[in-house]
Amino acid sequence: MTVGGRELVLLQGFLDSLLELEQWAGQRGAREGRELVKRLTDFAFDTIAPFPLAFPVYPFRLAPDRVLRRAVLSRQYAVVYEVHATELVFVYAYSTLRNPDQLSLPQG
């Protein structure tokens, strides 16, 4: 899928993190887990993808050599991504209750 001239790339780490969030939210009910994943993917594709530079660069201490951006949904969940000339790479999604410096970000 291409949005705004950039190919959307979903790293395996992004998909794995969505699964982890689905399982975490799914402890309250399977429907809640599925709805959370839908909200996060809609946010990524419908809000971030058309305007990827609208969200700030976020310096992750464990990835100082990468220019990563972080977009926050409802103050509860964050989507980490990289903007390249021809690609928009979704790297990771996590609960903002977690310390971002302790995340294990996948390589892009």
For this structure, what is the CATH class?
Answer: Alpha Beta
Q: Which percent bin holds the helix content?
A: 25-40%
Spatial separation of the terminal alpha carbons: 18 Å
Uncertain spans: none
What is the CATH fold-level name?
Answer: YaeB-like fold
User: What is the β-strand count?
Assistant: 5
Mean pLDDT: 90
CATH superfamily, by name, is RelE-like
Strand composition percent: 25-35%
Q: What order do the strands of the largest sheet run in, or round the barrel if closed?
A: 1-2-5-4-3
Category from helices, strands and their pairing? alpha+beta
Gross morphology: globular
Specify the number of helices.
2
H-E order: EEHHEEE
Radius of gyration: 13 Å
Number of domains: 1
